[in-house]
Amino acid sequence: MTVREALNSALDEEMSADPSVFLMGEEVGEYQGAYKITKGLLDKYGPDRVLDTPITEAGFTGIGVGAAYQGLRPVVEFMTFNFSMQAIDHIINSAAKSNYMSAGQISVPIVFRGPNGAAAGVGAQHSQCYAAWYAHVPGLKVLTPYSAEDARGLLKAAIRDPDPVVFLENELLYGESFPIKAEVLDSSFSVPIGKAKIEREGKDVTITAFSKMVGYALQAAEILSKEGISAEVINLRSIRPLDRAAINASVRKTNRLVTVEEGFPQHGVGAEICMSVVEDSFEYLDAPVERIAGADVPMPYAANLERLAVPQVEDIVRAAKRACYRSS
Amino acid sequence: SPPSAPVPRHRIPQIPLNPARASRASPAMAAAILRRLSPAAAQRAPPRLLPPTLARGVSDSTEPLTVETSVPFTSHIVDPPSRDVSTTPRELAAAFRDMALMRRAEIAADSLYKAKLIRGFCHLYDGQEAVAVGMEAAITRRDAIITAYRDHCLYLARGGDLVAAFAELMGRVDGCSRGKGGSMHFYKKDANFYGGHGIVGAQVPLGCGLAFAQRYRKEGTVTFDLYGDGAANQGQLFEALNMAALWKLPVILVCENNHYGMGTAEWKASKSPAYYKRGDYVPGLKVDGMDFLAVKQACKFAKEHVLENGPIILEMDTYRYHGHSMSDPGSTYRTRDEIAGIRQERDPIERVRKLLLTHDLATAQELKDMEKEIRKEVDTAIAKAKESPMPDTSELFKNVYVNDCGLESFGVDRKVVRTVLP
Asked: Where is this region: Disordered (chain B) (predicted)?
């Protein structure tokens, strides 16, 4: 199943199961979705439940949050999360904080979803990763699926969750196909929020990653195994809440850690993971924590520069070797 | 500066004076007097005695009474409603009481703030009471209301508890948000009051979302989406209004135009301060927001309109006596003469007082007694609120999520304070 099919089927099944679920976003209806994630849903559920919006993120995000105040379950699509910045006040001040400020009176069962991070050659304004930004905020849940199983299970969990969820997909993963177990196809299937997945077990070094970088980390682990380094790859799945228990348990086993992310390095996800490990498992570390992240520059367009701005498999391999005190 | 209103002209009602009031008689005697004055009147049930908080003698009658608003409605691409407003003595007395209670509560909040029992931001509504009370008179609790941060009186109008309001202002656990919201974050979901928002203009799309849900569920209810003249230029307002018009959402945008966005006069902030016209393709009505009956009439009209036709804008011409907040004296950008002039000519409570006196529905002394009782009621509520404790430390970590079982959270020093969310 491709990630696209996984997302589409999850939306379809959740809309079928719960009449209060509705979709909102640019081109989600008649255009069948800018990336075809919502294909067929307008025909099936009608224009009252699949709403094409004008290009007005602040307006439609606010409307979605207001509908969620009333107990409906909106799924608001941002064509990319770069455009979510136009609506970020509603995501944070109107959605994330409401349950707390109202001492539980106003809950916000909303999902904000869409592609996050770099695509290919789309330039600086269309390539930013927002995982660290949204994961910063108490009151939000931030999910980052990698595989088709992740996409289906996490999106279903997100729609059923009574809290506001930021669901960060990746455009380059939409077309990728993954093998799935039969249970994944069941309409009640879901993946728990806040639990990471060990994609590959290992004993020498832990590599944490999310979204597209999970695939790169798995490729790096394959290369490392040929050089005698057994890497354990953790697919975070959930940035907030972060599965600190799983990360620390793994580091206590391997004693070495490489964090991988696509976004800007300063104040990133890796910084939080490193600090968590220093706080909880310092004595277990045999080497400093290594961090692989996007370059600290706006995303350039030229293909060679873009390649230098985003982590590559060899960067992950090099960092893992450093953590193991091996020269490259 | 806002024009002063002409003296209201009222039609003399064609009904007998409330006999119970005229004679201060018992209900039995009142019934006897009724039978004498008008045989037809004898068929009607005698007036119910008022609850103890209302001064005895003030008319409780539900006999219809028609009053003309002091200024006509000005409209934009819609036919305005009539200036003749149907009301009853009971409704006028209740409006007087509710507005006087709100006035007293806000003035008491001013004192509490100066005594440092209220901290941070405190935005007071005194002067604008007619908007909250007039709106409430036209709608039901199934209709929704959302506003920004000048929200204390909207909360009270929706049936909010006076003690809970003061406790919230003072950050106590018996506050309506358990002390975790503060002045700008009052909510009452069971009365469809959705707050209570600190970001100027954000509540406008949120209110359109409330209306979206009402239409989605085919509830036949509407949302009143309040904002100020300062928020009226926000881009997100026009984004939301566009969608509300496209999708025919049952939302009424209510601009509480008190003519100053914090310290900036409307004509300095808005190229066009005719806020009722700013909807362009969306109809609008300009309303004397200091006239309880005009507000009621406009809201009733608006509710019927939006259920058929989609959004409408109501611009309430109103005024706040206090500054923008307790940090703003309110006199650096307005003259004291202007403030005093509005109080003299347009005060909403004084107008209803005049109506009650002119129609012989109450005496001046009775209304003064009512205000005295209200003052006592507010003082008692404040005393009770002061007894409420501050929230327990465990409240710090409550309500971060609805579904938060097992999630971790941290205090300032996570080696000292680290918890699993309840």
From this structure: 1-23, 42-62
Question: Which of A69, A75, A93, A277 is best to mutate for the B interface (most B CBs within 10 A)?
Answer: A69
* Residues spanned by the domain of A284: 197-324
A215 with A306, same domain?
yes
Together in a domain, A301 and A247: yes
Q: Which two tokens stand for residue A309?
A: 């701005």
Does residue A191 lie in a domain region?
A: no
Q: Quick check: B23 pLDDT over 80? A: no
Residues of B in contact with A93 (CB under 8 A): 197-199, 202
SS3 B75: strand
| Domain count within chain A | 2
The tens digit of pLDDT for each residue in A200-247 reads 999 999 999 999 999 999 999 999 999 999 999 999 999 999 999 999
Instruction: Band the pLDDT of A93: cuts 50, 70, 90.
Output: very high
Q: What is the band of A71 on the pLDDT scale with cuts at 50, 70, 90?
A: very high
User: What six digits make up the tokens of A130?
Assistant: 């927002």
The reported pLDDT for the residue numbered B19 is 44
Contact at CB, A53 and B210, closer than 8 angstroms: no
A142 contacts A163 by C-beta, under 8 angstroms: no
Cα–Cα distance, B252 to B166 (Å, whole number): 29
CATH number, domain with residue A234: 3.40.50.920
Question: Does residue A206 share a domain with residue A241?
Answer: yes
% of residues, chain B, pLDDT over 90? 82
Whether A190 is covered by a domain: the verdict is no
What letter does residue B14 receive in the DSSP assignment?
S
- Cα separation, B329 vs B332, in Å, equals 7
Q: Where are the domains of chain B?
A: 11-326+341-397
Is the pLDDT at B5 greater than 70, yes or no?
Answer: no
Residue A192 lies in a domain: no
- The model's pLDDT over A11-39, given as tens digits with 9 standing for 90+, comes to 999 999 999 999 999 999 999 999 999 99
Contact B206 A71 (CB under 8 A): no
Smallest CA-to-CA distance from A111 within A145, A78, A135, A153 is with A78
CATH number of the domain located at residue range(s) B11-326+341-397 in this protein: 3.40.50.970
- Choose the final residue of a domain: A152, A185, A218: A185
Using DSSP's 3-state secondary structure scheme, residue A157 falls into: helix
Between chains, do A139 and B401 touch, taking CB under 8 Å as contact?
A: yes
Residue A16 lies in a domain: yes
